[in-house]
Amino acid sequence: MTRRKILALLAFFACISAMYALAERQTRKMQAAGAELSIDWDAVVDDPAERLEISWMSIPRFPTAREGTWIEKRLEARFNVDFKPLFTSHFAYMRRRPLVFAGGNVPDLFYAGDPVVVQKDAHHGYALPIPYEVIQKHAPNYVRYLNEYAPSAWLYAYWKGDNYGIPTWGSSLGYPVPGIWRMDWLRNVGIDKVPETLDEMYTALWKFRHEDPDGNGIQDTYGMCPNAQAWFNVFGSVFGAYGIVPHGWMLRDGAVVWGGTRPEAKEILGLLRKWYVDGLIDPDFAIGQIKSSPIPYQKFVSGKTGYLFSHGGYSSFDQYNKASLVSVIAELQPGAEVVVGPFPAGPEGIRGARVWSTAAHVFVFGKQVAAAPEKVVRMLKIFEALAVEEKLFVEVRMGQRGVHWEFDAERGLYHLPPYDDRNVASKHLTTLSVDGPGGFFAPCGVRPAIADKYLPTAMLQHRERYQRTEWAQAGLFGKPDVVPSSIKHLRDLRNLQMTVYAEIIRGERDIDYFDDFVAEWTERGGAEMTQEAREIYKVREEIYRKVGVVQRFTGR
After folding, report:
1. Among 68, 335, 373, 525, which has the minimal tally of Cβ within 10 Å of its Cβ?
2. Maximum Cα–Cα distance for the chain, whole Å?
């Protein structure tokens, strides 16, 4: 190594050390300030005539947007606010945000995508605790809808006895996504209907491998090729047929357990191993290195596999979108017929697949807002209005009707040119759909009764037929990282589980090695996580009592 390279490397490490030192000093400073923090919330007054300046780092999906969009001005005028929006990409959110916060540049309100992020922000002293009573007082209807649609979201904002920020929901997140089949392949191998059970699924996939469904005289097709790296939905409908959420917490016999260590999971792995030995599963299923690997999708649209997990949503069949799956496969495989496959029923008639749950994210207030708590009240009023007022929500989510979007029953709400270009829409803060949790200034979800009014009739029919919410399996808490020690253990244990599962399916490990995996999982942090999960389950009951939750999710 040259002297110049050595000096450059030393300078780089010195820079990194300086940043971490700054982060540590800032953390100690903010924690010291937090120790003296005390707000008399009953005395906080928000004068609507006073214009408040509020910096806001919202959902990191609009990196090309600029301050002053029509949507921003609409909300500012209504609530007498001067927003200072901080637009960022998801990459910048993940990589740069921690350093920016450590340097003291914490926004007044900021997005926390997962419970573990909230916990870190609270630990480092960046976040301001907001009592449940304050949210209930200034956003009572918002709380009511959150309790109805996504009560577990309250756990996403919980850390060491306090609530941090405003949890959100996204109703569309509760619709499970089934798989899709090549119907022409099914007919070519003598099957006239889409498989509806695991046994029927096995038969069809076996024939796809051994009976030349594409008619080219070569054994070059497989039944399916899932992505083993996509922990959140790999073999989703197969695990769902046994009622198991393999990467989530579940309730069994009154106890909180990790789904991936259950005896049923071992039985499922035994089934999948047989499928692999019989040639139903493409060997490439385990080579994807990232969760968004395109290999399964590419193999399906190119005619190498006949079944694809988790692509049976309405958007895959959108004839107006040239990038939809049916549009792509029609171009690559003329004559191909693609149909939605119902979730296959398991031995006990269970069917379904994992969903993230309708709980979405959390919006956290920076600790410095303690000096101006009226900003909290103003933002709660905004969230309340977005939850109650349909016209306001749609405008802040989608823009101005007749300019940014229009509506008809066949297409639902659709963008007008030039906003039908995704990049243009993002620049102006309009989102892909009024449904879901994806707006910058309207990040909370919309009530299903309102969302359904703006969706295509065919999409509503598709959901009713193929994506019923009773088939959704969210686990006990939704996102598994509500458990505090997940910061230490979850990623490592997740990698262990994915590796062992793939090895068992491929025959590199005996099926009884599953028991060794459970022991190792427990020893490497699983026991600690499980104990905390059981404590969180008790905490959930207390939180639900405080905020008035009546309807509750089950453990499946």
Report:
1. 335
2. 80
- From the number of C-beta atoms within 10 Å of its C-beta (0-12, 13-18, 19+), residue 193 rates as exposed
Three-state SS at 107:
coil
- pLDDT averaged over every residue in the chain: 91
Q: What is the pLDDT of residues 443-497, one digit of tens each?
A: 988 899 899 999 999 999 999 999 999 999 999 999 999 999 999 999 999 999 9
What residue numbers bound the domain in which 90 lies? 51-171+360-396
Query: Where in 158-282 does DSSP place strands (E)?
Result: 158-159, 162-163, 166-169, 179-182, 222-224, 249-252, 255-258
pTM, entire model: 0.89
pLDDT value at position 289?
Answer: 46
Residues 232 and 314 in one domain: yes
**Single residue among 344, 379, 396 that ends a domain in this structure:** 396
Measure Cα distances from 181 to 233, 309, 319, 334 in Å: 17, 9, 18, 16
Last residue of one domain, picked from the residues 341, 371, 396: 396
309 contacts 233 by C-beta, under 8 angstroms: yes
Give the ranges where 447-485 is alpha helix by DSSP (H). 448-451, 457-466
520 within some domain: yes
205 and 113 in a common domain: no
CATH number of the domain residue 81 falls in? 3.40.190.10
For residues 443 and 437, is the Cβ–Cβ distance under 8 A?
Answer: yes
Asked whether residue 159 falls in the same domain as residue 183, the answer is no
Buried b (16+ CB within 10 A) or exposed e, 385-398: bbbbebebbbbbbb
Say whether both 338 and 487 belong to one domain.
Answer: yes
Q: What percent of the chain has pLDDT over 90?
A: 82
Mean pLDDT of 326-331: 93
Give the mean model confidence (pLDDT) for residues 10-35.
46
Residue 489 within any structural domain of the chain: yes
- Specify whether 163 is located in the same domain as 219: no
CA–CA dist 475, 519 (Å, integer): 22
Instruction: Say if residues 333 and 303 touch (Cβ distance below 8 Å).
Output: yes
Question: Is residue 219 located within the same domain as residue 246?
Answer: yes
Report how far Cα 527 is from the mean position of its chain's Cα atoms. 26
140 and 194 share one domain = no
Q: How many domains does the chain have?
A: 2
pLDDT tens digits, one per residue of 284-328: 888 754 445 688 899 999 999 999 999 999 999 988 888 899 999
Contact between 431 and 397 under an 8 Å Cβ cutoff? The reply is yes
Q: How far is CA 301 from CA 49, 86, 218, in A?
A: 58, 38, 18
Question: Would 239 be classed as within a structural domain?
Answer: yes
Assess whether 156 and 303 both reside in one domain.
no
Instruction: Give per-residue pLDDT as tens, 510-554.
Output: 999 999 999 999 999 999 999 999 999 999 999 999 999 985 544
Q: Quote the radius of gyration of the chain (alpha carbons, Å).
A: 25
How far from 421 is each of 139, 335, 416, CA to CA, in Å? Answer: 35, 29, 9
Q: Which two tokens stand for residue 33?
A: 């300030």
Q: What are the strands, taking DSSP E only, across 470-519?
A: 472-473
Omega prior to 344 cis, within 30 of 0: no
